[in-house]
Automatic annotation (TrEMBL):
GO terms for molecular function: protein-disulfide reductase activity. One of its GO terms (cellular component) is cytoplasm. This is Thioredoxin domain-containing protein. InterPro entries: Thioredoxin-like_sf, Thioredoxin_domain. It holds the Pfam family Thioredoxin. Residues 1-121 form the Thioredoxin domain. It comes from the Archaea. Residues 1-20 are annotated as: Disordered.
Length: 122
């Protein structure tokens, strides 16, 4: 389960578990404090989204950057900003800019780790 919120102190290191973004302010804090972010947009009751939880845990522990989950139904302005049309939608951000997107269902950990590693260095 995603329990950490974006504003928890991490001693300058990315959290090693997914964080939950509860509003736009959490998102803005995350982007200011972390260069590389994987955002997962979900909705309550989404079966595929639920199956992604353990995958995102693996990604958070093994990949560079921060993994964050946003409930699109609870933070619709953020979902609109990223033009989320289906869930789960996963977006990789580098310095606040979208550099990769996965909006076609379940993604294996290897795919997401590769995407984050690709964009970790320029």
């Amino acid at each position: 389960m995603t329990e950490t919120i974006a504003s928890e102190p991490t001693d300058g290191q990315p959290p090693r578990k997914p964080v939950q973004l509860n509003d736009v302010d959490d998102y803005e804090d995350l982007i200011v404090n972390h260069d590389l972010v994987l955002l997962e947009f979900v909705t309550s009751g989404c079966g595929i989204c639920g199956s992604m939880e353990p995958v995102l845990g693996v990604v958070a522990r093994s990949a560079p950057g921060v993994v964050a989950t946003v409930n699109a139904g609870l933070v619709p302005e953020l979902a609109a900003e990223f033009d989320v049309q289906s869930v789960p939608t996963l977006v990789v951000l580098r310095d606040g800019e979208e550099v990769a997107r996965f909006d076609d269902g379940f993604q294996p950990a290897e795919t997401l780790v590769d995407a984050l590693e690709t964009h970790a260095t320029r």
